[in-house]
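Service request form, structural biology core

Requester: graduate student, group of Dr. S.
Request type: structure prediction, single chain
Budget code: on file
Notes: please return the result as structure tokens.

Sequence provided:
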Amino acid sequence: MKFMCECGHPIYDSTDYLPYKAHLISDQDWFDFLDEIDHAIEKSGPTAKDKEKALMNIRSLSTNLSKMVYQCSECGNMFFDNNSPRLEVFRAASDSPNKTLLQSAHGDQWKGFLYGDWVDDNPIWRVKGYITASSLHEGKQCDDRVTLEKEYYLLFNELRDKSVLRSSILRKNGTIIHTWSLD
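Core staff response, request fulfilled:
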């Protein structure tokens, strides 16, 4: 999904972990959601299949109960997707709104991701290499593999040392050459 804010700034919803997107659950539905989590923990059954079914029920319920909310990082406008053909927009009451209302409660300490991809022959991309990370406002493009790997490992070490990394993957032509995870 892509749409334009009234101020002219584009808002993209094409990946996960967006700092300007949130899933909103009505207070009327919140306790039903918590009850389903309690049920999954306490009464899901002893087998892995029982637990997987309970988990999938929670995921399904969270999707059905939530509305998507987006905030423009330029002007602070909020957009609510109520599963209707148009988004509802709400404007800030002040001239200097908080433009990070939808970011993680952990703020700058939120543990994000790092991905690096190199493709020798990619007709879709104009460049062969690309690095994206939750901490970067824009991805980094690289025209040679050595530079891509160097930039990836520099960023990997920096984010890991700051304890703000949950996972990372570096791929070359679809083959994983480096992976790391907190788990």
